[in-house]
Design goal:
There is one protein chain. With 575 residues, this protein is of the alpha+beta class. The protein folds into 4 domains: 140 residues, Trna Endonuclease, Chain: A, domain 1; 100 residues, no CATH class; 112 residues, no CATH class; 132 residues, no CATH class. Helix 13 packs across helix 14 and helix 14 crosses helix 15. 24% of the residues are buried.
Length: 575
């Protein structure tokens, strides 16, 4: 057993009560936590917060070194019965040991049976030990040297114990851990992150769980919730005075929810629970306060978005919106997820609102991009779209608007449509790039014309292999002496097109040559007459006009020619 667990269970009841008092007091700084002397009877109360006759929070401390058995359960029942006479809002049982599985099952039933009278919680040994890890002063008071104080040893060796907290923060990265420990000692309800940077402005958008951030331009300390329960019961506070312009900014924050920057001269008399993170008093006059609402705690909405109306409407069945601003007069929502567009809308108290779309399709599947293009066109054609709240079953927004599609739309509409055709025909996973290059446009044109069977090429000569077969007739042999129509079918297009960074294997391609002559026709004629069945020979074909190339679909009947020649190209495609 860890020595701290052992020493905790060895505490006498009075000492255990005092330990719990100091821990609870530290968890809820600024709150009036009171300890009750139980020598004359504690009425089921060891510690309390609030008024005893008006819904207090009560902590009952029980030192049970041998665990929670039937006798201990009777004591817990008796203590709660006495405490309920005060009509507590919350009752917390504090134990010097951890309950075993059977005791936990009993406690869960016990808590449920009294749930209508008070909210019942448990703080057992493992919870207390966890807090003691963060609260060195309390730990050393009750359990001296139970855990080696490495931080204190390092401070003594490096003589950093003589430095102020602010001076310690300026030392090298090796002392950051010591600095973080001091911050935890100052207020262990929070977790801290320290970042040093030069010429990089501090991050203004809070991360999930972040409560505050303090920066002097070089060092930034981000503050996160660690003890959520303590913070919920005793939220951190700040007090300050604002000048006229600062008051206007605060009104704007309350009205619209927009974050505000309170500059030097506008901010006066600033104090906070986190004052140990503030710069020296003489620098406060130059401080800048970025103040805004905690968007991570704001509600989100699951919606169905319908662009347009009627048979041309395009529907996104489930789009999540997060609240980014929440003011008294207007609220702003932004879409989340992997859609190829970003959408935000503002709802005002007047009933009016506004909507903004921004395309964000880099890396998106071309089918999703094409759906968004159709959605935009449907919305502008019908002049409306609808946001429907799936959870509440009500329409959030159904604006009517007029205007024209954005300037960029026309150029991308055909591109997206053709990209979808190509992806479907060649079974490709095509992703829209950040920027479409001229090479992409060229490849797009080649592939579309191949699919349509009308890719016109100017080719001087083509090399092919002719195989002698048993059904090669005299008329076909004579054709080789003059002009004829030919179809040559290589394994794929002679050079693989690259579209949006993807090399496209076209599969078999048919080159339709309406008029062509064979180079060395007499040799070709002689080969057809004298060569044994199955023998191959390579020849060169000279087209006498444009060549049409087309992609070959399975069982495509259009690959035959009137003269009966279907030849195989010997040219290998470029990989």
């Amino acid at each position: 057993m860890h020595p701290l667990y052992q020493r905790l269970k060895e505490l006498d009841p009075d000492t255990f009560e005092k330990l719990c008092f100091h821990l609870v007091k530290a968890r809820f700084p600024g709150e009036e936590i009171r300890h009750v002397d139980g020598s004359a009877g504690d009425e089921g109360v060891d510690l309390f917060l609030g008024r005893l006759d008006s819904g207090p929070t009560i902590w009952q401390c029980k030192s049970f070194p041998n665990g929670v058995k039937e006798h201990q359960k009777d004591q817990i029942r008796k203590s709660l019965k006495e405490a309920l006479k005060h009509n507590p809002r919350r009752w917390v049982l504090c134990l010097s040991v951890d309950m075993d599985a059977a005791a936990h099952r009993w406690f869960q039933r016990f808590r449920q049976s009294h749930s209508e009278r008070a909210h019942i919680d448990l703080m057992q040994a493992s919870d207390i030990i966890q807090e003691l890890f963060y609260r060195n002063a309390i730990r050393e008071m009750f359990f001296p040297r139970a855990i080696p104080d490495v931080a204190a040893f390092l401070e003594t060796v490096t003589k950093t114990n003589r430095l102020s907290t602010e001076e310690l923060a300026t030392l090298n990265a090796g002392n950051i851990d010591l600095y973080l420990k001091r911050l935890e000692e100052a207020d262990a309800r929070f977790a801290y992150e320290v970042r040093y940077a030069r010429n990089i402005p501090p991050e203004e958008r809070p991360r999930p769980g972040q409560i505050a951030s303090f920066s002097d331009g070089t060092k930034t300390v981000d503050v996160f919730a660690r003890d959520v329960e303590a913070l919920r019961l005793n939220p951190p506070k700040a007090h300050f005075t604002l000048t006229d312009t600062g008051v206007d900014k605060m009104k704007e924050l309350m009205r619209t929810g927009r974050s505000q920057v309170i500059g030097p001269g506008e901010l006066q008399n600033y104090t906070t629970d986190l004052s140990f993170l503030l710069p020296p008093k003489e620098q406060i006059k130059d401080a800048i306060l970025h103040i805004g609402l905690a968007t991570s705690a704001m509600p989100s909405r699951l919606t169905r978005v319908t662009f347009g109306a009627g048979p041309d409407a395009v529907v996104y069945e489930c789009v999540k919106f997060k609240t980014t601003r929440l003011g008294q007069e207007e609220t702003e929502f932004e879409s989340t997820g992997t859609l190829p567009f970003h959408m935000s809308f503002i709802v005002r108290q007047t009933g009016l609102g506004s909507v903004h779309f921004e395309r964000r399709w880099a890396g998106a599947d071309v089918h999703d991009v094409w759906k968004f293009m159709r959605a935009m066109k449907a919305a502008y054609t019908a002049g409306t779209f609808e946001l429907y709240d799936l959870e509440r079953g009500v329409t959030l927004l159904k604006p009517h608007f007029t205007g024209e599609l954005p300037n960029w739309f026309a150029g991308y509409e055909e591109l997206a449509s053709e990209a979808v055709r190509i992806a479907g025909f060649y079974k490709l996973d095509l992703r829209m790039p950040e920027k479409v290059t001229p090479e992409d446009i060229e490849s797009l044109s080649i592939l579309v014309h191949l699919i349509d069977g009308n890719l016109q090429l100017d080719i001087n000569d083509m090399t092919f292999t002719l195989t002698k077969t048993a059904n090669l007739g005299q008329a076909q042999t004579e054709t080789l002496l003059g002009e004829g129509a030919y179809v040559i079918t290589p394994a794929e297009y002679f050079e693989r097109p690259v579209l949006f960074g993807t090399k496209v294997c076209t599969g078999p391609v048919a080159y339709h040559i309406p008029r062509a002559r064979v180079e060395n026709p007499e040799e070709a004629h002689r080969f057809c007459q004298t060569a044994p069945i199955g023998e191959d020979h390579t020849f060169t074909l000279k087209p006498l006009g444009p060549v049409l190339a087309s992609a070959i679909r399975p069982n495509d009947p259009n690959t035959a020619t009137t003269d009966g020649f279907k030849l195989k190209s010997t040219d290998e495609p470029a990989a």
